[in-house]
Amino acid sequence: MKDKRCLYTLSVILALSVLSCGAAQSTVQPQDKTPKKPVKVFVINKTPIALADDASLKYYPGGNPEQGVLSSNTMIDTGPLKVMLAKEKQIGFYSDQTVRWAYLAEPVKIYGIPFRTNRIEFYPGGKLMNAYPAEGQKIKGYAPVDDYPVFFHETGAVKLMIPAGSITVDEIKFLSNTMVSFYSTGMVQRGILAGDTVLYGLTLKGGTPLILYPDGNIWMATLAKPASIKGKKLKTGESVSFNLLGELE
């Protein structure tokens, strides 16, 4: 009888052992067999960054990286700015191993303007050169088009934009969806006139470029009507150019 009890106890122990092993096996997670992509690490803006070691990696003649693809989101301090750059996106560098352009991993505010996750470009030294404002964001009181970046001077002043609607600066109306550039002072440098415009006694043709000096005087324009300047007769459609003294060239 005692032997039967011992055999029964042993069989129970063996059964529990089998169940225990089965339960343990069921909790084992399958291993990720996806091979990790090879990377190369470089120091950019004094920060180690990992780039995909593949055909996307290009070098300057001296051996420093020229462009590549980031393997992970990376916070970069350019000096003037701190931005999170997006993984699996291309990134370009200056020859001194500082960031030239990349793609934002998250929105960022610069010069008080919110920018969305898209391409961003920097000047040598790290200041913002151009980026894509958040949708609906106005620049100088006007909404730029969504598919082109806004450019900035190193001072932070707007350098170039394409307004989605017409833009009026100093009573001069410029055509929508065309480039308008500015000096660092905020004065217009160049734009396409939205219509015939009278400026300094001359009627200038709409739909043609107007280029101004930093003081607002005409540099180059196209006449919409005949004109006479210091005895020289000019025809409709003729291009005119003035020097810094305001003299016809």
Provide structural commentary.
With 249 residues, this protein is mainly beta. It folds into 2 domains: 37-137; 155-249, no CATH class. It has 1 helix and 25 strands. The strands form 7 sheets. Strands 3-4-7-8-11-12-13-14-17-18-21-22-25 form a 13-stranded antiparallel β-sheet, with no helix packed on it. It has a two-stranded antiparallel sheet with strand order 1-2. Strands 5-6 form a two-stranded antiparallel sheet. A hairpin with a 2-residue loop joins strand 9 and strand 10 (113-115). The chain is elongated, with a radius of gyration of 32 Å.
Can you give me a brief rundown of this structure?
The protein has one helix and 25 strands. By secondary structure, the protein is mainly beta.
How are the SSEs ordered, and which strands pair?
Elements: H1 2-26, E1 39-44, E2 47-52, E3 58-59, E4 65-69, E5 74-77, E6 82-85, E7 90-93, E8 99-103, E9 108-110, E10 113-115, E11 119-122, E12 128-131, E13 150-152, E14 158-161, E15 167-169, E16 172-174, E17 180-182, E18 188-192, E19 197-199, E20 202-204, E21 209-212, E22 218-222, E23 227-229, E24 232-234, E25 239-241
Antiparallel strand pairs: 1-2, 3-4, 4-7, 5-6, 7-8, 8-11, 9-10, 11-12, 12-13, 13-14, 14-17, 15-16, 17-18, 18-21, 19-20, 21-22, 22-25, 23-24
